[in-house]
C-alpha cells in the first residue's frame, strides 16, 4: 500500500523554501511560548498543579469505564441524550441523523478538533448539509478550504494580508484591507446572521464531569455559547478521554489550560452546560475512534491525558519551522505525533521521527505526558513492525555490525577519516544531506584511541 | 577512585582534542583515569532511529569495557543519557551498576568532585549552548519551561571558575540546535534551519566562541559557521576548563 500523504520531511523541505516565512512562523509561535512562560511564572505552585492534573488523569485512565457510565447516567438524568460512537464513521452518522431529525440542512459548529479527526465537515457536506465553523480562525481556514494548522490557533499559518484577501473573496471586504478590527467586524456580521438562522449547533467538549453529568466548553470568542443558546438542538461531541471525576477538578484544569495554551489566566468563556433549556434538545456523542486501543498500549496510554492546550506545538522547534500541515494529521506537533500512529501506523510512521527528542514538549505539558519518551518508543514499535524503509533497515544493520566490533569500528574510523582528508569530494557533494547547508568536520590524522595508546608507550 | 573514560565514537574519530582535554581535566582534579581500549559506541545511533533491537552488540561491548569502574565519565550529555536510560545486557547486574555510575563530565566535576577552583584562563566572549539531552535529560541546568525557585547551571558554575571568560545571555537560552542524530540528515531542511537560528542567536550577542557539553551539537553548529565563513569557533567545555594563555 502506498502512502497517500507527503512525508513530514518532504513537506518541511517545501515549507523551508521561503526562509522569511519560516522566521515569521517561528517568531509568532515563540511569542505564544514566551507568553505562556510569563503566565506560569506567576503561579508559584505551577509544578504541583501539573502533578495534580497528571494524577487525576491517571486515575481517569484507570477507571474509564466506571466514570463514563457514571457520566452517562447523570447526563441522562439531566435530560441529555447520550450517544456512543465506536469510530469516526459512527460519530458522523449519528450527527447527520440528529440534523435530519431536526429537519435542518444547516449546522453551525464551534471549534471541535474531534470533528476534524473524524472528518465531519466533508461527510456532512457530501450529504447535503451546510456546515459553518463559527470561530474566527476556523472560519478563515474553512473559507480557504484548508484544515486547521494548529489545534488552538487554527489560522496561525496565515498572515493578516492573506486573511484580508480571503475575506475580500468570500465576504466582500475591501481589497488590500488588513486591519484586524475591520476584518473581525466583517466576520462578526457574517456569523451573526449564521447564528440567527441555524437550528442545530455543535460544540466540542473540554471537560465532561462524571459526578454531575455536565460538561464545560472553553472558548475565547463566545461563539460556542452563541450557537448553542440560539439553536433548538445542541450537539456536543467528545472523545471519551475528556472525562474528569468531579467538578472540583475543574479548579486544577481551568487554571492550567489557558495559561499553557495562550498565556491567559483563563479563557474568556468557560461555559458550563448541564441540561437543555426548556424546549431545547441536548445530545452528547461520546467517541472512541481508537482511544480504547491506545488505552491498551501500556507505553502510550497516558497520551490520553492530553487536554489539547497545544503548548507542545508552540514550544516545538520542529513544529515552528515545519508548520502544522507538514504533520498531515488533525492534531499536529509532538502530541499529534504520538497520537497519530495509533490511528494508522503506516500512514503516520514518519511522525515520531519529526523530532530531535529535545524534550521541551514534555516540560511544558500541563498534564505531564512524557511526549518525547513516547516518540522514542513509537520509533521502536514502528521499525520493529516493519514500517521503516527497507534501505534504512539495511543501513542500520551494517552500522550495528561495525559499531559493535572494536576492530571493525577502528578500521572503519581510519578509512572514513582518510577518505575525508584525501578525497573529500566523496562526501562533499549533493548526495550528502549534511553537506547541503553545513561543512563536514575536519578529520584529524590520529584518533583519540591511537593518541592514548602512543602516550602510554612513551 | 577508579574512573573509566568513555569517549563517544565521533569524538574519538573527529574531535580527539576534546577527549584529550577531558582526560587531562579529570587527571588534574585527582582522578585515576583509564580509557578502556576496546570501547566503541553507546548504540544511540541505532536506538534513536527505532532500531534499539540492533544495539545489543554495542551494549554488551560497553558492559565488557566499563563493568569494573567506580565511575564512568563522558564528555557528552547525550551518550551519557542514552547509557543511563537504555543500557541493558545479558549481565544485567553489571548494566544496572553502569547505569547508576555513569556521569556526564560537568555533573561529575560539580556533584562528585565538588570542584571549586580551576587554574584556567580563557579571555573571550563565550556563548553556552545548552544541549538538550544534558540539560533536560540529565538536569544539568534549570530548564526554561519549568517553574523552579532556585536557578542553577552546572556548566555555568564551572565556566565561572575560568579567568577572563565573559559569558553572554542568549535570547533563547535553551532551544535545540537541530542536530538530533540521524534527524540531521532525514529532516535536513528543519535541522539546518534550527542550526542556523541557534548560531544566529550567539552571533547577535557577539561571541568569539560557542561552547557546550555535547560535541554533536557543536559539530552541527560548526558546520553552519564554517559554511557562512564565520570566524566564530566552537570549543567543548573541557577545552575551556583546561585552557591556559
A few lines on this structure:
Chain A is of the alpha/beta class and 458 residues long. Chain A is 52% helix and 10% strand. The chains are: A alpha/beta (458), B alpha/beta (245).
Question: How do the strands and helices of this protein lay out in sequence?
Answer:
The complex is a heterodimer of chains A (458) and B (245).
Chain A: H1 8-15, H2 19-41, H3 46-62, H4 64-77, E1 81-85, H5 88-101, E2 106-109, H6 113-117, H7 120-126, E3 130-133, H8 136-143, H9 160-171, H10 180-197, E4 200-203, E5 207-209, E6 214-219, H11 223-230, E7 233-239, E8 243-244, H12 250-262, E9 269-273, E10 281-287, H13 291-295, H14 311-315, H15 317-322, H16 333-343, H17 360-364, H18 371-384, H19 390-403, H20 406-422, H21 433-437, H22 448-457
Parallel strand pairs in A: 1-10, 2-3, 2-4, 4-7, 5-8, 7-10
Antiparallel strand pairs in A: 5-6, 6-9
Helix pairs in contact in A: 2-12, 3-12, 9-10, 16-18
Chain B: E1 2-5, H1 9-14, H2 16-28, E2 32-34, H3 44-48, H4 56-66, E3 71-74, H5 77-86, H6 92-101, E4 102-104, H7 105-112, E5 125-129, H8 132-137, H9 154-159, E6 166-167, H10 183-186, H11 188-204, E7 209-212, H12 215-227, E8 233-236, H13 237-241
Parallel strand pairs in B: 1-2, 1-3, 3-4, 5-6, 5-7, 7-8
Helix pairs in contact in B: 11-12
The level-1 CATH class of the largest domain in chain A? Alpha Beta
Oligomeric state of the chains in view: heterodimer
Major sheet of chain A, described briefly? 6 strands, parallel
**Residues in helices of chain B, as a percent range:** 40-55%
Report the largest inter-chain contact.
A-B, 75 and 75 residues
Number of helices of chain B: 13
List segments of chain A where confidence is low: pLDDT < 50 over at least 5 consecutive residues: none
Which class of the largest domain in chain B in CATH terms? Alpha Beta
Q: What does the average pLDDT of chain B come to?
A: 97
* Strand coverage percent of chain B: 5-15%
CATH topology of the largest domain in chain A: Rossmann fold
| Shape type of chain B | globular
Amino acid at each position: 500500500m502506498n502512502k497517500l500523504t507527503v512525508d513530514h520531511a518532504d513537506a518541511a523541505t517545501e515549507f523551508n523554501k521561503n526562509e522569511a516565512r519560516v522566521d515569521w512562523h517561528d517568531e509568532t509561535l515563540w511569542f505564544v511560548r514566551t507568553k505562556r512562560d510569563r503566565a506560569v511564572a506567576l503561579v508559584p505552585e505551577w509544578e504541583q498543579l501539573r502533578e495534580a492534573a497528571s494524577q487525576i488523569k491517571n486515575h481517569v485512565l484507570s477507571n474509564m469505564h466506571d466514570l463514563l457510565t457514571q457520566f452517562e447516567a447523570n447526563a441522562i438524568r439531566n435530560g441529555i441524550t447520550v450517544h456512543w460512537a465506536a469510530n469516526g464513521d459512527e460519530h458522523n452518522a449519528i450527527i447527520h441523523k440528529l440534523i435530519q431529525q431536526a429537519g435542518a440542512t444547516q449546522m453551525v459548529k464551534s471549534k471541535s478538533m474531534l470533528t476534524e479527526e473524524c472528518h465531519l465537515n466533508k461527510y456532512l457536506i457530501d450529504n447535503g448539509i451546510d456546515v459553518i465553523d463559527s470561530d474566527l480562525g476556523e472560519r478563515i481556514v474553512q473559507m480557504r478550504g484548508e484544515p486547521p494548522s494548529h489545534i488552538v490557533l487554527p489560522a496561525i499559518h496565515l498572515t493578516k494580508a492573506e486573511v484580508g484577501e480571503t475575506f475580500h473573496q468570500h465576504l466582500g471586504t475591501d481589497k488590500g484591507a488588513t486591519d484586524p478590527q475591520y476584518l473581525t467586524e466583517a466576520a462578526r456580521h457574517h456569523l451573526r446572521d449564521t447564528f440567527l438562522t441555524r437550528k442545530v449547533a455543535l460544540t466540542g467538549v473540554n471537560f465532561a464531569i462524571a459526578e454531575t453529568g455536565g460538561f464545560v466548553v472553553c472558548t475565547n470568542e463566545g461563539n460556542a455559547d452563541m450557537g448553542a443558546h440560539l439553536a433548538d438542538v445542541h450537539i456536543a461531541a467528545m472523545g471519551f478521554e475528556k472525562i474528569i471525576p468531579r467538578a472540583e477538578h475543574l479548579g486544577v484544569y481551568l487554571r492550567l489550560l489557558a495559561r499553557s495554551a495562550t498565556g491567559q489566566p483563563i479563557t474568556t468563556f468557560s461555559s458550563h452546560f448541564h441540561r437543555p433549556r426548556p424546549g431545547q434538545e441536548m445530545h452528547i456523542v461520546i467517541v472512541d475512534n481508537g482511544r480504547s486501543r491506545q488505552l491498551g498500549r501500556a507505553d502510550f496510554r497516558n497520551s490520553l491525558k492530553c487536554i489539547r492546550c497545544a503548548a507542545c506545538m508552540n514550544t516545538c522547534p520542529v513544529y515552528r519551522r515545519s508548520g502544522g500541515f507538514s504533520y498531515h494529521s488533525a492534531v499536529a506537533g509532538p502530541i499529534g505525533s504520538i497520537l497519530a500512529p495509533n490511528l494508522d501506523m503506516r500512514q503516520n510512521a514518519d511522525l515520531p521521527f519529526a523530532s530531535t527528542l529535545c524534550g521541551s514538549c514534555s516540560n511544558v505539558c500541563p498534564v505531564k505526558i512524557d511526549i518525547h519518551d513516547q516518540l522514542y518508543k513509537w520509533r521502536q514499535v514502528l521499525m520493529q513492525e516493519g514500517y521503516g524503509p527497507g534501505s534504512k533497515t539495511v543501513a542500520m544493520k551494517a552500522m550495528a555490525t561495525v559499531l559493535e566490533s572494536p576492530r571493525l569500528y577502528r578500521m572503519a574510523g581510519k578509512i572514513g577519516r582518510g577518505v575525508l582528508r584525501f578525497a573529500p569530494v566523496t562526501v562533499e557533494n549533493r548526495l550528502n544531506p549534511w553537506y547541503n547547508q553545513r561543512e563536514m568536520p575536519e578529520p584529524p590524522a590520529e584518533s583519540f584511541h591511537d593518541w592514548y595508546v602512543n602516550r602510554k608507550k612513551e | 577512585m577508579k574512573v573509566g573514560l568513555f569517549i563517544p565514537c565521533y569524538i574519538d574519530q573527529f574531535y580527539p582534542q576534546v577527549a584529550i582535554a577531558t582526560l587531562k581535566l579529570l587527571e588534574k582534579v585527582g582522578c585515576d583515569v583509564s580509557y578502556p581500549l576496546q570501547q566503541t559506541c553507546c548504540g544511540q545511533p541505532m536506538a534513536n532511529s527505532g532500531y534499539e533491537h540492533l544495539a545489543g552488540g554495542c551494549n554488551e561491548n560497553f558492559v565488557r569495557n566499563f563493568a569494573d569502574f567506580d565511575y564512568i565519565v563522558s564528555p557528552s550529555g547525550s551518550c551519557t543519557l542514552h547509557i543511563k536510560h537504555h543500557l541493558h545486557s545479558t549481565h544485567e547486574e553489571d548494566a544496572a551498576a553502569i547505569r547508576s555510575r555513569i556521569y556526564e563530565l560537568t555533573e561529575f566535576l560539580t556533584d562528585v568532585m565538588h570542584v571549586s577552583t580551576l587554574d584556567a584562563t580563557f579571555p573571550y566572549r563565550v556563548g553556552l549552548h545548552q544541549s538538550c539531552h544534558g540539560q533536560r535529560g540529565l538536569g544539568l541546568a534549570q530548564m526554561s519551561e519549568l517553574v523552579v525557585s532556585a536557578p542553577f547551571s552546572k556548566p555555568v558554575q564551572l565556566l565561572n571558575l575560568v579567568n577572563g571568560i565573559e559569558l553572554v545571555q542568549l535570547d533563547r537560552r535553551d532551544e535545540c540546535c537541530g542536530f538530533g542524530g540521524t534527524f540531521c540528515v532525514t529532516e535536513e531542511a528543519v535541522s539546518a534551519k534550527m542550526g542556523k537560528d541557534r548560531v544566529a542567536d550567539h552571533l547577535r550577542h557577539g561571541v568569539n566562541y560557542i561552547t557546550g557539553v555535547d560535541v554533536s551539537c557543536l559539530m552541527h553548529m560548526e558546520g553552519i559557521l564554517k559554511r557562512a565563513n564565520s570566524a566564530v569557533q566552537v570549543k567543548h567545555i573541557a577545552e575551556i576548563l583546561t585552557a591556559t594563555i
